[in-house]
Every structure is written in structure tokens, then in C-alpha cells.
Amino acid sequence: MKIKNVMELKVLSLSENESFARSVVGAFATQLDPTLEEVADIKTAVSEAVTNCIVHAYPDCVGDIRITAEISEGRITVRIQDYGVGIADVAQARQPFYSTSKDESRSGMGFTVMETFMDELNVESEPGRGTTVTMTKTFKKQG
């Protein structure tokens, strides 16, 4: 697979950086000539992944969130990585409505939303070392 372009961004796990991260990745994806709906899908998935880092990876502190995106052969692969608390049971965390947050406003739908808006989702995590979410979306040729 020949990589056409790559970007990398590192932000702190502050809520104000969620919209920035989603905008940067959305803008990066535009070189694939996506529809507005496809850009919105990517931005929504990135928003969910970054919010998970802010809320779950660093519940009592501020830490780094590393975002990389690669464009290759009509597809974008986005990786969102934190170095926080990690996930003890990834399969359980991916279940709809499951949340470790005690905040009742959290729906536990983050991974489900990511899966819905992207074509592929992979979650790797190690307790105490962090989590990496890798999401891919393939674009159909326009016209």
C-alpha cells in the first residue's frame, strides 16, 4: 500500500481540543474529495474517540492525545492514541451502553458511534499504558 499523505497532531486532553482535532482531521480528509456527509462521518468518529480520551483515559489529570491520519489509495486511516489508564476489557467496553464513567450523562455509545460512521474500527489497549483507536474509511469515486 503506497501512502499518499500523512499528518500528525498532538493535543492535551482538554475539552476545548476536541473540536480542534475533529476539524483538523476533517480538513485533512478533504483531499480525497469526500461528500459533506463523509466529512461529517469522519469528524463525528474523531470527536467520539478524542472525547473518550478526555473523559476515560485521563479522568483525574491532563495528558497527551496523539492523532495521526494517513491517506492512501482512496482511504483515510485515523489513529487516536492516549497514554492514560487503558481499558481492562476492550470487548466489554465496545458493548453499547457500557461506560466506566460515573457521570450519568455518558451514554456508553462512543465505540458504537465510531463503528457506525467508519468502515473499520480497531481498539488496542493495555491497562496503565493507554489505548489506540484505529479507524478507516474508504471513499467511493465521485461521478
Characteristics of this structure?
4 helices, Heat Shock Protein 90, alpha+beta, 5 strands
- Cross-sheet strand order for the largest sheet: 1-2-3-5-4
* Percent range for β-strand residues: 25-35%
Kindly identify the CATH topology: Heat Shock Protein 90
Oligomeric grouping of the chains = single chain
Order of SSEs, N→C?
EHHEEHHEE
Level-1 CATH class name: Alpha Beta
Helix content: 25-40%
Morphology call: globular
Question: How many helical elements?
Answer: 4
Tally of DSSP β-strands:
5
Write down the overall mean pLDDT. Answer: 88
**What is the name of the CATH superfamily?**
Histidine kinase-like ATPase, C-terminal domain
Query: In the CATH hierarchy, what is the architecture at level 2?
Result: 2-Layer Sandwich
Low-confidence sequence ranges? none
The total number of structural domains is 1
Which structural category fits the helices and strands? Answer: alpha+beta
